[in-house]
Amino acid sequence: GGLAPAVWCCAAFAPAGRGGRRGATPQLAALSSGHLCVIELTGGGAAGGAPSSSRRTHSLPGLAQLTCLAYTACGSWIVCGSEDGHIQVWGAQSLTLERNLVGEGARRCFATSPPEAEYEPRLIAGGSDSSLQVWSTPGWALERVVVDPPSGRAAIHSCSFSASGTWLVSVGKHFCVWRACLDHRGLLDLCLHQRLEGACGAIGLRAVAIRAQDDFIAVGSCDGLLGVWIREEGPPPPRDPAPEASPEAERHPLRHGRTCPLPGQR
Which SUPFAM superfamilies does the UniProt entry name for this protein (predicted)? Predict the structure, then answer.
């Protein structure tokens, strides 16, 4: 028999103006079962036709299955996570493997701090064991590993920063909102701000995203429901105290806005 066709598992666009260059060619990275592809979109023709593209491809080492990828905020690096906990760091232009970071537990998702954040670039790696790893991208040092104890060993399926870099949201067994702040040593800490029960559907949360303009949060679940949350001023509603809770100051609770089924779902 012939070779099995490649399966695309994830893709990400490079940040606009990467490397400080205005008008940089739009770039898309995509991860298949055997290759890392970088596609440069050069725009449509004068008649407004479909954009043309050029593609660079690199075969992946025959190691553990890769599960997720993301660009760093500067656009210079592409990071790929794998089932064995490793994080591969690739040069976005050269497509050479620069580093292989070793961690524990399969990686499920990434979030990169935005350029507007008031701290040096960070990479958050969500794991299959409910952990969030905080990596400092300038030196690729693991600064911290944060775990949400009530989530047990459930995987973190998706995470996302707010436009300011002040907030991080994650979904796994629970929908959690974290406050990102520097400690006295200059290391980035993630303090649990709020854990929301019944955030969306009853069957598994899978995806989360924050809108840059106003911090609206969209949460999707496996049963076809999509929840939209907004932020309100004032202290969050009372909850059982937990050692991982953040200080009471400057908290902004979230209010559930709307949950709706997706087309084709019951």
Answer: WD40 repeat-like
